[in-house]
Amino acid sequence: MNYLLVFILQVCFNICKSLEIRFTYENRLWPILVVGLALSAMTILGVYISIGAMLEGDYYIIGVYMVGSVVGKYISFMINKQKYRNKVYNLINKK
To answer: 73: number of CA atoms within 13 Å, CB side?
Structure first.
């Protein structure tokens, strides 16, 4: 159960982190605050569960933590790839 929870928390954390960066770029205050609060909660919970498991001798949780992070970054990249590719293309073609 802890493995699945840590994996999901890491995936969500990395997706929310890219959303926070995007909202900052777009100067949208309220979404930044909401996502920042969610990021804090996910960080505290994920670290709490992971450290608790490691103190009990379960070191596989480290791998789950890292794999969840990579999967979250990949999903975030795939979601935002086309959106920013069009913006960069339009910016370059303006000149």
So the answer is: 6
Q: How many CA atoms lie within 13 A of 47 on its CB side?
A: 6
Tens digit of each residue's pLDDT (9 = 90 or more) over 33-47: 999 999 999 999 999
Instruction: Quote the CA–CA distance of 62 and 31 in Å, as a whole number.
Output: 30
Category of 57 on φ-ψ map: left (φ > 0), alpha (ψ -120 to 50) or beta: left
How many domains are contained in the chain? 1
Positive/negative CA dihedral, 54, 59, 62, 67: negative
Give the distance, in angstroms, between the CA of residue 78 and the centroid of all CA atoms in the same chain: 13
pTM: 0.80
Domain hosting 20: range is 2-94
